[in-house]
Amino acid sequence: MASNYRNLTPAQPLDKKTLNKMVWRSLNLQGSFNYERMQAAGWLYCILPGLEKIHTDKEDLKLAMAHNLEFFNTHPFLVTFVMGIVLSMEQQKADINTIRAVRVAAMGPLGGIGDAIFWFTLVPIAAGICSNMAINGSVMGPILFLIIFNAVQFAVRFFLMGWSYKLGSAAIGILTANAKEFTRAASMLGVFIVGALTSNYGGTTVALEIANGESPIVVQSILDGVLPKMIPLALTLMCYFLMKKKGWTPVKCIALLLVIGLVGGAIGLF
């Protein structure tokens, strides 16, 4: 593959309409996911409107499409960050090998950052607020959860596209300078939220009672005296252990909890 485009004259900056079009297309990033090139086909589909405006030479467009079909995998909600950087370099007709290297460098750190923002922070907080509404019978619980989650993810997508396109490759250093600290802080917040949810909404109790004349000993009262919500905590730690150490999926853990609940309820344990 050639290392330079034929037409090295920088292209005109992309208009906001084109950038927004690619943001909407980013929803299809994983539409053709495979284990050979991961998100490569979806990535090219997302970025194609920009490439077509930048490369008016058909041979250059073919070259751009070819190297943008190489292996690609990043967090789907933060992909516009990489798109903005790559489009900025394509617009300047940078060396192709440099664009490829920057694309790989930009996509790498986003996995941990994206998980920390969305799965460890946003989802537990939004779910904690909205699940309480749903438990109390409000139909707005799940609706509000979807509104909050999608409002945040779309705001992030549009912001990152404009910001990274404006800064170019310099955006990588800015975003990743404190990536480890940010990821750790967000993860700690997420764990804190999960702990609070376990305490507030964990309702599993032991139904066992020990005969003691007219005042039977309630086992649950003894457990609460040692540590309130001990059973929900134990179940949570059990699921964590199974997923972290044994490689279980969340679906398997849910099925196990269902079995435990059914069996425990049938024999009068819970």
From the structure above, extract its key features.
two-stranded antiparallel sheet, 12 helices, 270 residues
Number of separate strands: 2
Q: Structurally, how many domains make up the residues?
A: 3
Mean pLDDT: 84
Helix content: 55-70%
Question: What is the strand arrangement across the widest sheet?
Answer: 1-2
Structural class: mainly alpha
Task: State the order of secondary-structure elements, H for helix, E for strand.
Answer: HHHHHHHHHEEHHH
The separation of the N and C termini measures: 66 Å
Specify the overall morphology. elongated
Explain the overall architecture.
There is one protein chain. The chain has 270 residues and is mainly α. The protein has 3 domains: 16-109, no CATH class; 111-162 and 175-198, no CATH class; 204-266, no CATH class. It is built from 12 helices and 2 strands, in the order H-H-H-H-H-H-H-H-H-E-E-H-H-H. It has a two-stranded antiparallel ribbon with strand order 1-2. The longest helix is centred in the middle third of the chain and has 28 residues, at 140-167. The radius of gyration is 25 Å and the shape is elongated.
